[in-house]
Specification:
Elements (H helix, E strand, L loop, with lengths): L3 H13 L2 H11 L8 H12 L6 E5 L5 H10 L2 E6 L2 H14 L5 E5 L11 E7 L8 H11 E14 L6 H10 L6 H10 L3 E7 L1 H16 L5 H19 L3 E9 L4
Parallel strand pairs: 1-2, 1-4, 2-3, 4-5
Antiparallel strand pairs: 5-7, 6-7
């Protein structure tokens, strides 16, 4: 039987998240971030959870640790961050030491499908990670189990439109081994796992604004010309897919209620 976790980790560390690629993403999204909207979007999403100081949060796919650092420093939260990419974690843990937040933030290798705790967290937060996970039923069941009663789930993720995919979008998804759903399908999956007060928002218009701002930043960056051109081409293609309605961006919140 193929170990899909190992395949995913190998793909991330040998293809999408080579150290050079990670640093290129960081140059676009801002220091400590590898997700759309960078620090500004992280602040907005963390504030939405409305957690009190000392609350315990799991950051799934913590990346370079940017969101975890913001949660600890500016919101007084205790954060466990997990990621499948060892390349990403090596950089993140160096940043953790530089930021002096080791007392509040723990960043480690981990698979969110293999969480071994029940009723552990006051909130689970994730930014554009679940697109890598194909077993969404197991994912949301595991996340539900890991939250305490009253715990909050908040994540953003790449989604797809409800119309049939065109050839280019299909090739894009298959090349990266993504597993995408529409916003409506995601809401159904989250609800089926037992979550309540499930809200799914299509924030693709915001994504388009972010991509357009990123393109300006890439054009003004000090990156080598060949790298800059490659990134610009990738961002323009993503922008085209979004404007065509194929590539969507979803924001989801839900609560684990009951005892």
């Amino acid at each position: 039987m193929t170990d899909s976790r190992q395949v995913t980790q190998d793909f991330l560390d040998s293809a999408q998240y080579l150290e050079t690629s990670i640093l290129q993403y960081e140059s676009v999204y801002g220091q400590d971030f590898v997700s759309p909207g960078g620090r500004e979007m992280a602040l907005e999403m963390i504030a939405r959870m409305a957690l009190g100081p000392g609350a315990h949060v799991l950051d799934v796919g913590c990346g370079l640790g940017g969101s975890a650092f913001v949660m600890a420093r500016e919101f007084g939260l205790k954060v466990d961050g997990i990621d499948l990419s060892r390349n990403m974690l090596a950089l993140a843990n160096r940043k953790l030491q530089t930021n002096g937040l080791a007392a509040s933030v723990d960043l480690r290798w981990g698979d969110c499908l293999e969480l071994d705790c029940s009723d552990c967290y006051d909130a689970i937060y994730s930014r554009d990670v679940f697109l890598h996970i194909h077993d969404k039923v197991r994912l949301f069941t595991t996340l539900w189990d890991s939250l305490r009663p009253g715990g909050i789930l908040l994540f953003t993720d790449y989604c797809c439109g409800s119309e049939s995919w065109d050839k280019d979008f299909k090739a894009y998804v298959e090349d990266r081994s993504y597993c995408l759903h529409s916003v409506v399908e995601y809401v159904d999956l989250i609800s089926a796992a037992g979550f309540e007060r499930v809200i799914g928002e299509d924030i693709s218009a915001r994504f388009i604004e972010i991509l357009e701002a990123d393109l300006v930043r890439i054009g003004e960056s000090a990156l080598e010309q060949a790298t800059r051109v490659k990134l610009e081409q990738s961002w323009l293609q993503k922008l085209d897919r979004c404007k065509a309605g194929h590539h969507r961006w979803g924001l989801f919140t839900a609560v684990k209620t009951g005892a």
